[in-house]
Amino acid sequence: MLTPNLILLYVEDPEQSAAFYTRLLGRGPVAAFPAYVAYALDNGLNFSLWSTKAANFVSSGSGHRMEIAFMVKDDAEVERLYAEWRKAGIPIEQDLMTAVFGRTFVALDPDGHRLRVCTPDK
């Protein structure tokens, strides 16, 4: 079975985005180049940032049609992160609320990518 193991975000400014994600993830990148930055996460997933200004970048798509979600252990952790991210000045697109699947909120990274925090589906 083929298993996805990389999330790749297109970004305008890799240095700015790397600073944001280094702070958010609590770890530095495993590779950093002017147009590409990569993180290795503890769960085996790789997370990378690729500059839309890179010489070999090609994409005909536009807009943000996906979310990166951080499933945390419980509602209290969702609420703690909501307060922490607001205090850190991270833009909040969807305020803390209860959805059909539980407590959640959505923040935005420097390029407008949606970052959802929620509890696991039950």
Question: How is this fold's topology laid out?
Answer:
Layout: E1 6-11, H1 14-25, E2 31-33, E3 36-40, E4 46-51, E5 67-71, H2 75-87, E6 92-99, E7 102-108, E8 114-118
Parallel strand pairs: 1-4, 5-8
Antiparallel strand pairs: 2-3, 3-4, 6-7, 7-8
Describe this structure in words.
The protein is an alpha/beta fold and 122 residues long. Helix content is 20%, strand content 37%. It has helices at 14-25, 75-87; strands spanning 6-11, 31-33, 36-40, 46-51, 67-71, 92-99, 102-108, 114-118. A hairpin with a 5-residue loop joins strand 3 (36-40) and strand 4. It is globular, with a radius of gyration of 15 Å. It starts with 5 loop residues before the first strand and ends with a strand.
Rg, rounded, reads 15 Å
**pLDDT average, as an integer?**
91
Task: Give the class-level CATH name of the largest domain.
Answer: Alpha Beta
Helical content class: 10-25%
Amino-to-carboxy terminus distance: 25 Å
Order of helices and strands: EHEEEEHEEE
User: Could you say which structural class the secondary elements and strand pairing correspond to?
Assistant: alpha/beta
Total beta strand runs: 8
| Poorly predicted tracts of residues | none
Strand content: 35-45%
Oligomer: single chain
Q: Indicate the overall shape.
A: globular
CATH fold topology of the largest domain: Signal recognition particle alu RNA binding heterodimer, srp9/1
**What is the count of structural domains?**
2
- Strand order in the sheet with the most strands: 1-4-3-2
